[in-house]
Protein 1
Amino acid sequence: MQVENKEFKPLIVAFCCNWCSYAGADLAGTNRLNYPADVKIIRVPCSCRVNPMFILRAFQRGADGVIICGCHPGDCHYTTGNYYARRRMTALFSMLDYLGIEKGRTRVEWVSAAEGQRFAETMNSFVSTIISLGENKRLEDLRCKTK
Amino acid sequence: MQDKMIARAKELLRDGAVNRVLGWKTGEFVYDITPAVFTSAEELDRDFVFDAFTAANLSKYLVKESKKEGKVLAFLKPCDSYSFQQLIKEHRVDRENVYIVGIPCEGKVDIEALKARGISGITAIEETADAVTVKTVYDEDITVAKQDVLFERCVNCKSKKVVICDEMLGENGEIVDSDRFDAVAKLEAMTPDERFAFWQNELSRCIRCNACRNVCPACTCEKCVFDNVNSGVEHKVAANSFEESLFHIIRAYHVAGRCTDCGECSRVCPQHIPLHLLNRKFIKDMNELYGEYQAGADTETRPPLVNFSMDDCEPSIVYQRGGNA
Amino acid sequence: MQRIGVFVCWCGSNIAATVDVQRVAEELKKEPGVVFSADYQYMCSESGQNLIKDAIKEHALTGVVICSCSPRMHENTFRKAAASVGLNPYMVEIANIREQCSWIHKDKATGTEKAIILGRAAIAKVHLNAPLIAGESPVTKRALVIGGGIAGIQTALDIAEAGFEVDIVEKSPTIGGKMAQLDKTFPTLDCSACILTPKMVEAAQQEKIKIYSYSEIDEVKGFVGNFSVKIRRKARYVKEDICTGCGLCTEKCPQKKVPNEFNMGMDNRRAIYIPFAQAVPKVATIDPNYCTMLKTGKCGVCSKICGVKAIDYTQQDEIVEAKYGAIVVATGFNPISPAKFDEFAYSQSPDVVTSLEYERLMNAAGPTNGTLLRPSDGKHPHTIVFVQCVGSRCDGAEKGKPYCSKVCCMYTAKHAMLTREKYPDTDVYVFYIDVRTPGKNFDEFYRRAVEEYNVHYIKGMVGKVVPENGKLKVQAADLLSNEQLHIDADMVVLATAVEPDPSARSLATKLTASMDTNDFFTEAHPKLRPVESPTAGVFLSGMCQGPKDIPETVSQASAAAAKVIGLLVKDKLVGNPCVAHSDELLCNGCSSCEKVCPYGAITYSDKEFRMPDRTTALRRVAAVNPAVCQGCGACTVACPSGAMDLFGFSNNQIMAEVDAICK
């Protein structure tokens, strides 16, 4: 089911690892599984390529939510990448929470290449979380606003 | 202690064991202490100072000093020794070019705390085990309880132990039980809105002077990302509240797992932002999630962010902890 | 400034139906640096590629953005097209507007808007792309096959036939696998051993093949063309090169009560054993769990009796380290344990057997020498009920498997037919959900079972089996006549689902090869690259990839071999140029990157640098070995100073994409 909300169209950046989650997103597409167009995917080789700076950058530029998807722990194409990503993101998310950024604006999900369904479900659920949180006002840099 | 240190420094200079000494000297005011390099007995006699105000962590200076010709003598307090050992771990200093004399520390006095008590015009400071006495230009002799005027980091001291040195001057201390995470826990217990308000209030005062970055012994990059136009985070000025929080998050993240919690950032902040609370949050988190880790305590242990365990918790754990929305 | 060409593909109506491709092309034309923009029905077609090539030449393009299907589909196609007209292939970026846009968004306005944004992100990235040149690495001309069943044997034989050395690592004492346990094979009913054992012998005699039986994989390092593998040769307490396989010890060993796994535990073997008569290598193995000598130090009968003094109780596991250019996984399958399906009374009555056990009961070399006898009392059974889909096609994944095990319909038909042929006085019932017989001569085979051999096929599931007075009371539903059936059976045979061998999971981790949720190895592409794993240099053969019968297994085995041969004939492999690199001027020498690198691709050295003040300084800096680096990027985030960056996915490129999306 596609989440519909006329008033607030969130801007969501999804970092997907090339081997599992990006392929999972492709499979969701191949199976015509809907999820909101608010989600824009950036392909990275591995979830461990995601620098916390990218996430902060997205928020600075007005993203309302950032999700990082990688292979399931133990299945990383590079063996250990997602384990490092898991620690890094835990630390970062905790810091954002500590600074008073709304819980749930960031998320990590493990989606395999075979889990198209799960990818679509994850995106639907994430988008509805972000819609309920509303616009990202706490981390956005107004000078970066173009509209 | 100051006399003992000068005497030992002179000996080492005379013997040729070192060709210069890294210590502290007084600036315009007695509480205005600056790190300094001394190359002769005369300089030491004239300028070398060690008292309740000599708070600066000298480790960072050793990154450059240890690359120079000849051996340098450095006096390191317990805090400084953690920072120094962390720098060794990161291959940032040449250990063999440094002769370390460990010195015990009973806490350093925060001039702001004295000022807050209405004390001004200080011309000298004396300390005992639990009190400090200052002389002022008004010919006053004021004695206050030490505990009341120490830096926050000293009140919540984590260790009185010098973890690396060639010799100790005086008795080495022990790692102490510290309440240093209490302030973090208090923040964690707040609601996100309260936390946001707290940090807005604190971080919005930032003037982007970079003092915290410049003093931080973990910030020794050849070129700081904030000065590198290619890094994508180069920002020169603090234009709005977002700017500072981004700067401080990135800075805290950069030193996460490497920060020894020496507290220099908060000490030097001209706006009195409690920056150590950011670093301590990372330390507290990692201690709780991945096991106790003290940066600089040794040179072997893998820092938590370049390590992992197969059964680490998921990042979603952070949304299940702390205060609720 | 780059000169960028944008090419928007319709993919027939796949994209064009929900994305206004003309508008996407027009909008993207307005982006800075874009000097050419076009849309076309099929960009991947020859004429589509020509359009791209011509535009590159005509407009002197330095960068190309293709808005089309997933880069996982055609990135290579377009890179090659660009390269053919002299543009560096890494100056091509794909905006995925099919899988991640047109196929999931029904509303054309929404789809078009998103396609434009994805296009902008790709353009922003291409602006920062730099030409990359791939490095080369040598190929070790030797293959490793893990698993010595029919899949592994066939792969190894084909690779050896092409002239390359192959090592087979088999965890049990003999190669042969499950096929060695089968009696007859469908649909031709030729004897399994008769067609398998010559291949086993051939593998043993082939000079290029080395068999490490009773061995396991300890560690795999390296990458395609350059794997370094540690093989654990488990102590078999018998000197393999001396043992003649005479079998005297296996007759004299006093420990007689060891369940014989070859016969599914339906009879016993000795503590020292040769799994079966045609075992390869034909050498004895001591089972340390049962050998009295190894457990208590008292016995030594086999040692005394051995004429060639091959017994060595002090033998230890031995680690062999070898280098390979390619690895084939052929770890096979196991039937699941029916223990969870208590309704069939498997644990309550020995006369409820699995199909593989039934296979052994029918086999001349089995526990009953091929005479069909009930395990409980050794009498001939007169009514036999076969239950299909035991654990296959299960809804609740905690009990069984969601997938169809594929081979059960056919082997059940085979069992039913053979039973009726040998013992015409038996009544044979088969309960099925569906009978699935796609395959050459498969349906004909099944129909023969029904029509010629009068096997009672009943659509419906068995609800309960109750052992009672030496009989098995079978309660079942006939879905076609919609009535309840009660059959007094002498034996019940369960067609249990297949599942990947339990060793596969840990092996997958060692190989960094991915698996699906059922622990089957994932292929690089489900249709186009079915015998390759996504991990370069790792290939898949047989049941480890998914349920399949013998002819399919052998086909896949040969296909995997062909892929391996195709790899091993190369002298050099062209690497992936999207690897990490360190900016020495920024490097602190802190070793953070080295700690997180899973490949050991980063090394440190002291280098002299000229400093701004004209002095020289010795600094410790990192360097990346591009042949070893696989381009994960873990180091780039660990690096505090930003000295470490990744070609193709640089910090600035990713941030440019973020900016473009968040504009």
Protein 2
Amino acid sequence: MSSARQNQILLSAQLSVRYAGKQPVLRDVQLEIQRGEVLGLVGQSGSGKSTLAMAILGLLDKKRAQTEGTIRFQDSELLQLSEHELRALRGRAVALVLQSPLSALNPALKIRTQLREAWRAHAAGGTTECANAIRASLQSVSLPADDEFLRKYPSQMSVGQAQRVLIAMAVMHRPALLIADEATSALDVITQSEILALFRDLNRSTGMAILYISHDLASVAGICDRIAILHRGEIVECGTTEQIFAHPQHEYTQRLMAALPRILPANPQLQAKTEAAAAR
Amino acid sequence: MNSWQKLACAVLALVLGASLAANLLAPGGYAKQYREATNAPPSHAHWLGTDDVGRDRFARVLYGTRISLLLAPAAALLSTLMAALIGGLAGYLGGTWARMAMAVTDLFLSLPWLFLLITARALMPLNVSPQVSALVTFMLLGFLGWTAAARVLCTTAGSLRSSDFVRQARAAGLPGQRLFWVHVMPNLRPVLYAQFWISIPVFILSEANLGILGLGVAEPMPSWGSLLKELEGLVSVGEEPWKFVPLILLVVVVTSFQLLLSRQEGVAA
């Protein structure tokens, strides 16, 4: 491997995870994420996607989950780090956005408190610095940063706004890697497309790599540079988005592509009108 | 808040207000003896008569109410804080910590409560001052009354530990103690409020029970328990009905707390 390519690698994992007395959740999964790329991780429910995300963040229950292998991130071997060292990386170098924004935000805390806590986890400074950081992160996700908004509780916001707040929390410290674990699955189609566009903008403007975990191929196609297919705890195929969609190699990937919904295949005239309307 | 709960609030405010104004309403104080009028019936000078050593019963009811209504919430606060710390922290830490805390809780729950209170109270020196006896009685109630609430809080904190918002906060790099104080504790608040309100009438009644047994607040300081002790020697209900005022007041106050409690439970749910 050339040193230039080596320098481009942000995260390199070779990993197996097993819970005591059960079948392995991840079997020798090999994954590489380049700096600044958006990698899609696709698989059906229970295939081990979230386990992989939690393993990268060091959030698997160490007493129950047995993790073997390596996770190389920047210059650190994550599986060798202490909890204290991992905590220093979480939120600062690797951030997470979960699926359901309304359950991922604390219902008992105002938005200002939640953002302030996220900032204080990795920054020391006064009220002014904190307020400036909160304002900047909210503006980066196109949310208002006024007092009225910051006084709101999660239940007083729309799902889309809540998801943007979560993303603002995640990007506050400009992490090198953002893990979006089914981050658009709970959203309606319009909000989903807005959040995908936001991820794309953040990726382009900050150079932050994104591990975009989803079972929704359409959203993955809209945002990812490369896609890895996870099936029963194994990466069965990994390639560029074009390769995966145009020439799927593995049988499971082919089944996934075949299962993609086709818009109005039985009515070409209506399809043509729909496409024309979309083009307008 | 329905009309019954508004009435309960008004009753409690009235009773508490009157007890706090005891110095004005009964300037003679609770200990002054009117030797010339022992066991006197109600009169203009003594609205509820006097007891067997000539002390004004109205003054004693007011001062006794003040002690119960101020110290029972203090004991409830102590037991609620202990439950929050022991149960909440054990539930949040989980694993061995939770098992150890629940073992201690089970031990406390299996102790004969009243017997323990009587023993602890009996161990105190006989010449202890009335103020100290009042404080110790209610603090003992608070110290022994945290267990059931701790069990509920342990379970609630355990489920919060695996919630999405705690996982998200951990992923943001928050340290353990911030997760507990900032993210877990505010979500235990409704349970803590309910527990606080449940404990107040329980402690009022417990003190009354101890007082009847002569193990509550020491003489000459009055409390509802020591006032109810007067009813021991009563032969007929109709003979001296004014002696029932402390009992009626106790029932009214405890009922008012129970009515308010149903609202707190609604908030907690």
